[in-house]
């Protein structure tokens, strides 16, 4: 690890325009190729910044990718929280969470492609303490915990297992969507897909 990597500072100190250019270059590069095939120098060229700037504010290629991913997941969380406003019925709240994730994936296929091709599980686990987007995953956990408290969702497992189940279905759906050429809209089938998931995680006879 170089001295430049050790002395990396918070990327939020970058001006907004530069950060947006860097994130756009990250998205173009990592959505097209696997992590090990992308070099920092090409990100720098694509963003029209120096290589020293990337080292100064991010420190490494891994941190650059995960910091950008954290920003994108934050945007998803913001949309999700906005859409949940005013929905009282629990099942409909969960349905909306499901729909927003699919809609975001359809509108941002490069983000999905980046997560599928360049985000390795072991690397995410190691980076997790810093980039485990609490706003997004915390929202999921709170909504699922609410369902258990209301007696609507199964209590056979805890919220983390429910989250794994819920996210596992979503990620598989968007993965297949990308691999199959993004031809069939996910949101157009959101209701039937959600009902299938709902039957799996809801408690029989539970009140909504």
How would you concisely characterize the structure shown here?
By secondary structure, the chain is an all-alpha fold. Helix content is about 70%, strand content about 0%. The chain has eleven helices and no strands.
SSE order and pairing:
Blueprint: H1 3-6, H2 16-30, H3 40-47, H4 51-57, H5 61-84, H6 90-107, H7 109-117, H8 121-131, H9 134-149, H10 159-179, H11 190-201
Query: Residue-averaged pLDDT, rounded?
Result: 86
Number of helices: 11
Query: How many β-strands, per DSSP?
Result: 0
Give the helix proportion (percent range): 55-70%
What structural class should be given to the helix and strand makeup?
mainly alpha
């Amino acid at each position: 690890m170089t001295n430049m990597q050790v002395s990396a500072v918070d990327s939020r100190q970058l001006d907004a325009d530069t950060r947006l250019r860097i994130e756009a270059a990250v998205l173009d590069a990592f959505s097209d190729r696997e992590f090990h095939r992308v070099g920092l120098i090409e990100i720098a060229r694509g963003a029209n910044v120096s290589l020293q700037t990337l080292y100064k504010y991010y420190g490494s290629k891994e941190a650059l990718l995960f910091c950008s991913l954290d920003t994108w997941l934050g945007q998803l969380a913001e949309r999700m929280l906005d859409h949940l406003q005013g929905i009282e019925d629990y099942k409909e709240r969960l349905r909306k969470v499901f729909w927003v994730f699919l809609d975001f994936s359809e509108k941002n296929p490069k983000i999905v492609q980046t997560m599928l091709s360049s985000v390795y599980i072991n690397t995410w686990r190691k980076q997790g303490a810093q980039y485990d987007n609490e706003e997004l995953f915390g929202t999921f956990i709170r909504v699922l915990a609410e369902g258990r408290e209301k007696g609507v969702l199964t209590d056979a497992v805890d919220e983390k297992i429910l989250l794994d189940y819920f996210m596992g279905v979503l990620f598989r759906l968007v993965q297949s969507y990308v691999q199959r050429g993004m031809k069939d809209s996910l949101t157009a089938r959101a209701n039937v897909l959600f009902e299938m998931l709902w039957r799996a995680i809801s408690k029989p006879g539970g009140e909504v």
